[in-house]
Amino acid sequence: MAEKxxxxxxxxxxxxxxxxxxxxxxxxxxxxxxxxxxILMMGTTGNIYDFRRTLLAPMxxxxxxxxxxxxxxxx
Length: 75
Fold this sequence. Notes:
By secondary structure, the protein is mainly alpha-helical. Helix content is 60%, strand content 0%. The chain crosses the membrane at residues 24-43, 55-73.
C-alpha cells in the first residue's frame, strides 16, 4: 500500500480579543467611579449619618457597578 504523505495542518487562527479597546476604557472609567464612591464613603467629618456617606456615596458606587455592566455588555 502506498502511504499518503500529509503535512501538518495549519489553521489561520486570528487572535481576537473578547473586548475592544473601547470596552477596556469604559471598564477603567467604571472602576474610577466605584473608587470615587468609596472615597466619598470614607468622609472627613465625624458625623457618620452625613448625607454624603449614607446616600450619595452608595449611589455613586452602584452607578459605577451599573456602568461596568454596561461596559462589559457593550458590543
